[in-house]
Amino acid sequence: MITVEHLTKRYGDFTAVDDISFTIGEGHIYGFLGPNGAGKSTTMNIMTGCLAATSGEVKIDGYDIFEQARQAKQCIGYLPEIPPLYTDETPREYLRFVAEAKGIAGKEIPGEVARVIREAGLTEMQDRLIRNLSKGYRQRVGIAQALLGNPRYIILDEPTVGLDPLQIIEIRDLIRELGQKHTVILSSHILSEVQAICESVLIIAHGKLVAFDTPQNLERRLAENNRLTITAECGEEALRAILDGTEAVADYTVDALPAPVPAPQPEPAPAEPAEAPAAEGTAEPEAPAEDGETTVLDAPTELPDAALAEEPAAPAVCQATLTLAGDPAAACRAVFFAFAKAGCALLQMTPIKADLENIFIELTEDEPSGKEATAHESGIQA
Ligand SMILES: Nc1ncnc2c1ncn2[C@@H]1O[C@H](COP(=O)(O)OP(=O)(O)OP(=O)(O)O)[C@@H](O)[C@H]1O
User: Fold this and answer.
1) 162: which of 64, 213, 313, 336 is 20 to 30 A away, CA to CA?
2) CATH fold of 2-214+358-377, please?
3) pLDDT of residue 305
4) What region holds the ABC transporter domain (predicted)?
5) Residue 80 to residue 149: CA distance in whole angstroms
6) Distance (Å) from CA 107 to ligand 1 centroid
7) Residues in CB range of 170: below 8 A, 6 or more apart
8) How many A from CA of 164 to the centre of ligand 1?
9) Domain boundaries, given as residue ranges, for the chain
10) Which of 42, 51, 82, 360 best tests ligand 1's pocket when mutated (most atoms within 8 Å of CB)?
């Protein structure tokens, strides 16, 4: 078990980590989620004993990371955001070196290095120079060094950052495999990544822990924040009347109107040639257009009055952002039928997807006391 109690880190006047407390159990993949600069790396660096805290306590299986650093660090494998790899070595040479530095007994080193090479999927690349490996394989080398000594907790700081989509999938699969034998804690600023891999999510914003929950509970919480944008073919007054009369709409704002779509213009009839074509051989040759030059055709300067009178007016179009009440599907249906009943065409209904930004806006808008409550509500927290 990892317990973090009232952890605070200040850089001068700036508080990067602000009184964070949580408990990490065993046999689980935990995600540290937060935007850039939220304090994830700082927290991870302190948890792994790489950085001193200003105040607070971190215990790894009961060992204080500062007071009993050796025992505590033996329980942890850490992949920092920028892994310190010696690129002129092969993975096998580098891992031997790290194994020695970690104090693994000499006779156990070859077997241990072979094990982590296998587990990290490096078998085919073990004798190639690290500098010639792809970023994905370099990341595997970083993960392999974290696995040396078979620590109970594997802490990975942004393990997929900078990888291509295929490498991301492979590293995520590897992390899932590791999660079967170890407790894995990874940081990420990508919500979908954390949702895809992690069984528990810790959300950090502005150095504070603002949520600690399962992805399912987070999704549920976000789903409750039912919002969608609509575009309707009617005037603002009619739009408001319909929305005001629809119970499933808890709240709405009328958005700025989009630029009116110009009504289709009738194709002008081809102009009659003003003069009969000159007799062959007598006309002055037309100068050819130079490369890249656009030839502008004279537009008819005046439209006949009849054509102007017939031009259909662009229909009024309104946009609004709605917050729905109750079951989202039922609420969408109610909105749809309310517009249909009023004879207004709904041109678009687009759910506002919950993304990381939405969560942070939602979670960080609360008062600090509210945030604390959120973090403790989940029941995961000790
Ligand atoms: N040595 C330092 N001195 C001063 N400020 C620092 C130092 N290290 C980090 N910070 C600041 O502390 C805040 C938290 O940084 P941290 O690296 O922990 O964030 P993060 O969530 O890991 O973000 P990122 O994913 O960008 O690394 C940031 O505002 C950062 O600029």
Assistant:
1) 213
2) Rossmann fold (3.40.50)
3) 57
4) 2-231
5) 17
6) 40
7) 121, 136
8) 25
9) 2-214+358-377, 226-257+315-353
10) 42
